[in-house]
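> example.struct
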């Protein structure tokens, strides 16, 4: 691979859209087909902005051709929250994930964020991509607290040090302002995919809230619908 130079290349992640992530020395290379929902150029913008406030990868290069795009970043320390090290201690991992998401929301300044991940913006984007989103979704719950959301707060996108402290966040392609429950709902749901049933409430507790079932149900369903 030309982007890797002389470094040894190892594929570390494959997504459902056909995108691949490779490690190459002290760098990571994301490569995949162009995506109408997000783009790696947009992710690079968000990483550069967010990096002033929270730990996330430094952007080294980005580009595209007619069909594909790529993003090269500097590696962060720590392990993915779905590394076997953490899968074997799910309670500690989930507690760390909840705390980390709260740190993200408390650290990124809403007033200077120029991107949106609100329910109307996501619904509009999905419909423009040809997804039939039922009209019921147009009636979102009243916003609890607007924050800069991660946009894809699934467990693999948080990196943890072995003591459970935050190492950093990755995959900011959808980062934008929204109700905090848009992230909380997906982060809590993701614990069931990665660690099994029974951890959603612990995730929310570790974030520092009581479950808000109306907002959880809405944003979980919106995630699945869009």
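> example.seq
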């Amino acid at each position: 691979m030309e982007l890797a130079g002389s470094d040894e290349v190892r594929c570390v992640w494959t997504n459902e859209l056909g995108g691949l992530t490779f490690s190459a020395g002290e760098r990571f290379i994301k490569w995949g087909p162009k995506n109408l929902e997000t783009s790696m150029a947009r992710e690079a913008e968000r990483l550069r902005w967010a990096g002033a406030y929270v730990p996330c990868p430094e952007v080294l290069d980005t580009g595209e051709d007619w069909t594909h795009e790529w993003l090269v970043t500097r590696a962060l320390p720590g392990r993915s929250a779905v590394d076997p090290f953490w899968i074997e201690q799910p309670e500690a991992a989930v507690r760390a994930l909840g705390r980390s998401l709260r740190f993200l929301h408390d650290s990124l300044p809403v007033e200077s964020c120029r991107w949106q991940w609100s329910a109307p913006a996501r619904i509009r984007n999905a419909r423009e991509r040809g997804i039939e989103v039922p009209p019921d979704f147009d009636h979102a719950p009243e916003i609890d607290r607007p924050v800069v959301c991660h946009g894809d707060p699934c467990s693999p996108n948080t990196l943890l040090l072995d003591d459970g402290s935050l190492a950093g966040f990755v995959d900011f392609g959808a980062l934008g302002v929204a109700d905090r429950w848009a992230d909380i709902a997906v982060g809590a749901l993701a614990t069931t995919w990665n660690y099994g049933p029974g951890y959603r409430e612990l995730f929310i507790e570790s974030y520092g809230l009581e479950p808000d079932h109306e907002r959880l149900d809405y944003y979980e369903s919106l995630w699945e619908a869009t």
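> remarks
The domain at 79-225 is CATH 3.90.1200.10 (Aminoglycoside 3'-phosphotransferase; Chain: A, domain 2).
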